[in-house]
Automatic annotation (TrEMBL):
Pfam family, one: DUF179
Species annotation: Paracraurococcus ruber
UniProt-listed InterPro entries: AlgH-like (IPR003774)
Protein name: UPF0301 protein CKO45_07120
Gene3D superfamilies, per the entry: VC0467-like (3.40.1740.10)
SUPFAM superfamilies the record matches: VC0467-like
Record family assignment: Belongs to the UPF0301 (AlgH) family.
Amino acid sequence: MARHARPGRRPGPSGEGYLGGQVLIAMPSMQDPRFAKTVICLCAHSPDGAMGIVLNKPLDGLSFDELLKQLGLEPVPPQRRIRLCQGGPVEGGRGFVLHTLDWSNDQSLRVTDDLALTASVDILSAIAGGGGPRQGILALGYAGWGPGQLEEEIQANAWLSVPPDEGLLFGEDGDRKWFQALAKLKVDPLLLSGAAGHA
């Protein structure tokens, strides 16, 4: 996590027609192995493109305690820990904390009225010390789309979207999260088709 890294500073929740703050669910027909059965919190979406955090790919080989040691942050062991995940294929060495908006700093990007994204180490120090946001998840890397790319993928039936809830965002069930997200839509994945429908 870069000490002064920050996600692109965009205004808070996305405007009309944009899905910032929503949760994307990969359709069963998703061919890209990096996104098969993923659940993504879309943190920013505008005419410039989109950026999100994959929620259901646990990070293997690195613990929260080890990350604190690498960054030289105290205390180790921490008073609190948060879950680590692979946030996406872009900038895999860069850390982002998706968290409840009861904690923020001047580098935090407001995602919704309840959520923010912070890429400074201050939040890790706060969590390790027993404070910080009530809920959070640390992602290494993110998912990114260029201008119009996400809209094209949605038109091609690659993604569904649902409103977020804390269980979906911060709950532990990595393997089950995709099914939980679909259950919010009351959809059986076996009945989903990848063929785009046209009226």
